Automatic annotation (TrEMBL):
<dbReference type="InterPro" id="IPR036249">
    <property type="entry name" value="Thioredoxin-like_sf"/>
</dbReference>
<dbReference type="Pfam" id="PF00085">
    <property type="entry name" value="Thioredoxin"/>
</dbReference>
<dbReference type="GO" id="GO:0015035">
    <property type="term" value="F:protein-disulfide reductase activity"/>
</dbReference>
<feature type="domain" description="Thioredoxin">
    <location>
        <begin position="16"/>
        <end position="141"/>
    </location>
</feature>
<keyword id="KW-0732">Signal</keyword>
<feature type="signal peptide">
    <location>
        <begin position="1"/>
        <end position="21"/>
    </location>
</feature>
<dbReference type="GO" id="GO:0005788">
    <property type="term" value="C:endoplasmic reticulum lumen"/>
</dbReference>
<protein>
    <recommendedName>
        <fullName>Thioredoxin domain-containing protein</fullName>
    </recommendedName>
</protein>
<dbReference type="GO" id="GO:0034976">
    <property type="term" value="P:response to endoplasmic reticulum stress"/>
</dbReference>
<dbReference type="InterPro" id="IPR013766">
    <property type="entry name" value="Thioredoxin_domain"/>
</dbReference>
Length: 149
C-alpha cells in the first residue's frame, strides 16, 4: 500500500513538472549570457518577464503571465528572467530592473524598453494584453505574424 501511494505521488509530481514546462515551452529563459544576442539584436519585439519564484506577487502573476504569453505567442517572442539565478540577477542589475521592482514585464522593440507591468497589483489578463499591445502601437508584423522593430 505504501509503495502504491509513493508511486502515485511520484507519478503526479513528474506529470505536474512535465506539464508545467510544456505549457511554457514558448517562453525562452534569458540571462546575462544570451539577452543581447536574442533580444537586443533581434528584429522581433520581445516581451520579457523578470521574476523570482520566491516572490509572492510573482507567484500570483504566474498564471496571468502564462495565459497572456500563450495567447500572444503568435505575435511576440517571450522571455523570462529568473532573478534568483546568477545569470538573471546580473541581467536585472545591468538593466536597472530593481528600481521598478519585480515582477516586472517589459516590451523590447526598436526604442527603449517599455514597462507594461511592475508592482504589487496583479493585472487581469485582459489589462496586461491591452498594455502589451499598446506598447507596440504603430509597429508592423513580419511575414511570420510577429511584431518587428
Amino acid at each position: 500500500m505504501k509503495q502504491s501511494i509513493l508511486v502515485t505521488i511520484t507519478f503526479g509530481v513528474i506529470c505536474f513538472l512535465a506539464c508545467e514546462s510544456a505549457e511554457l515551452a514558448h517562453v525562452t529563459e534569458l540571462g546575462i549570457q544570451n539577452f543581447d544576442r536574442l533580444v537586443v539584436e533581434s528584429d522581433h519585439v520581445w516581451v520579457v518577464e523578470f521574476y523570482s519564484p520566491r516572490c509572492g506577487t510573482c507567484q500570483e502573476m504566474a498564471p496571468i503571465w502564462e495565459r497572456v504569453s500563450k495567447g500572444l505567442q503568435k505575435e511576440f517572442l517571450f522571455g523570462s528572467v529568473n532573478i534568483d539565478l546568477e545569470e538573471g540577477m546580473k541581467l536585472a542589475e545591468k538593466l536597472d530592473i530593481f528600481n521598478e521592482g519585480i515582477p516586472n514585464i517589459q516590451v523590447y522593440g526598436k526604442d527603449d524598453p517599455k514597462t507594461v507591468f511592475s508592482g504589487y497589483e496583479v493585472p487581469s489578463p485582459k489589462k496586461l494584453t491591452t498594455d502589451i499591445l499598446a506598447a507596440v502601437k504603430g509597429l508592423s508584423k513580419g511575414r511570420d505574424g510577429k511584431y518587428i522593430t
